[in-house]
Design a protein that fits this description.
There is one protein chain. The chain is mostly beta strands and 378 residues long. It has 2 domains: 116 residues, Zona pellucida, ZP-N domain (Immunoglobulin-like), CATH 2.60.40; 215 residues, Immunoglobulin-like (Sandwich), CATH 2.60.40.4100. It is built from 3 helices and 20 strands. The strands form 5 sheets. Strands 1, 4, 7, 8 and 9 form a 5-stranded antiparallel beta sheet that branches. The longest helix is centred in the first third of the chain and has 5 residues. The protein starts with a helix and ends in a 57-residue tail after the last strand. The N terminus and C terminus are likely disordered. One of its GO terms (biological process) is binding of sperm to zona pellucida. It comes from Hucho hucho. GO terms for molecular function: acrosin binding.
Length: 378
């Protein structure tokens, strides 16, 4: 970061203000320093001044009765949010005065932002092993499986009535890496185990992580129980009814602290009519491109842009059927909750990955009988 901080661009934008407080922002090598001159009224309640969730590191009362609050903290502290967009690293937070505790809104709020130019050759921290040495990134193992209706085990059938829900679990083993974020970048349903030009295709997740099927139907991502796993609660669709269907997904392991328009999990909230970022709704602006095209403004070079760790997986075959008893749920759907109690059955078992070259290097497609449970490993 030694080169990065030298090219800092400081942006301080007032989001909302009830007074004319003066503040100054210094973006330093590894930290941010904010000095805030406040009125005598605010000086009497200095404990309610915050940068993110941090109180002033120092505070002094001036001869005029006004106060000078200084916040000097590491860029990784105080709930400061980091984003990587194009060639920039963006750190942002809010400078606030909160006379009342949350959830009541701040009486005064200034949006603070430090922007750094990304150095050439920068690698996201999550690609660096926590300890030891690594030769490439082939050690990661991705998983994908169908779950039963109440999320307590693997699915025992591959037959789904039209309009019912298909719980799909995807995960990546963290092993000796830093914490990882599992994303589903693209998912389609197809009538063939391999995507071909002649394959009939139904889009499920498009545009680098947008759950498109949730806008036309009731599909949703369920709240995460861990950053390295994702549960897609997919509503069965009117596609290739009665035929064998395969779910093709592109799984990506990424930094859980860094989101951008190409690395996200977005879903459409019908109650608000807006797209929402699953992992941090406050950054839902990243999902606005879901109705158009989620591509960076500038074309990035392959060598300079980290792509994350990627695995293409196939789940199936499964069959969607329509009969006289089929009833498509209304938009008012009660989604299941994820309980810690059932997570043990998803714990990776070394013996399950029985190929010496490792599970990441191949795709396993379930071809057993219709009533047999699908394998958990893909």
């Amino acid at each position: 970061m030694s080169l990065l901080w030298q090219c800092a661009i400081v942006l301080a934008v007032v989001a909302a203000s009830a007074a004319n407080e003066d503040f100054n922002v210094d973006c330093e090598k590894h930290s941010i320093k904010v000095t805030w001159k406040v009125s005598s009224e605010l000086a009497e309640n200095a404990a309610r001044l915050f940068l993110g969730h941090c109180v002033p590191s120092t505070f002094s009362v001036l001869p005029t009765g006004e106060g000078m609050a200084t916040f000097h903290y590491n860029l990784n502290g105080c709930a400061i949010k980091k984003r990587v967009t194009g060639k920039k690293h963006i750190y942002s937070t809010n400078l606030t005065y909160r006379p009342d505790r949350k959830p009541k809104p701040a009486a005064i709020s200034h949006h603070i932002k430090c922007v750094y130019i990304r150095p050439e050759g920068w690698i996201p921290p999550f690609l660096i092993p926590a300890y030891g040495s690594a030769e490439g990134h082939g050690g990661l193992v991705f998983h994908m499986a169908l779950l039963n209706e109440d999320l307590t085990g693997l699915a025992k059938t591959s037959l789904f009535p039209l309009g019912s829900f298909i719980p799909i679990w995807a995960a990546v083993d963290q092993k000796d890496h830093q914490p990882l974020l599992l994303l589903l970048e693209e998912c389609v349903a197809a009538t063939t185990p391999e995507l071909q030009s002649a394959s009939l295709v139904y889009p499920i997740i498009t545009n680098k992580g947008c759950l498109a099927d949730g806008k036309t139907g009731n599909s949703r991502f369920l709240p995460r129980y861990h950053s390295s796993a994702l549960l897609l609660y997919l509503q069965s669709f009117k596609f290739a009814l009665g035929e064998e269907v395969y779910i093709h997904c592109k799984l990506v392991a990424w930094d859980p602290e860094v989101f951008d328009i190409e690395k996200k999990a977005c879903q459409y909230i019908k109650e608000t009519g807006e797209w929402e970022l699953l992992d941090d709704p406050s950054q839902s602006d990243l999902c606005k491109c879901c109705d158009s095209s989620c591509k960076p403004r500038l074309k990035r070079g392959v060598d300079s842009e980290p792509q994350g760790l990627v695995q293409n997986s196939v789940l199936g075959p499964l069959t969607i059927v329509e009969n006289s008893e089929t009833r498509i749920p209304s938009e008012s759907v009660k989604y299941p909750t994820v309980e810690q109690g059932w997570l043990s059955f998803l714990s990776p078992q070394p013996s399950t990955c029985w190929r010496p070259e490792g599970c990441i290097m191949f795709q396993y497609i379930w071809r057993s009988g219709r009533n047999d449970p699908p394998p958990i490993w893909i």
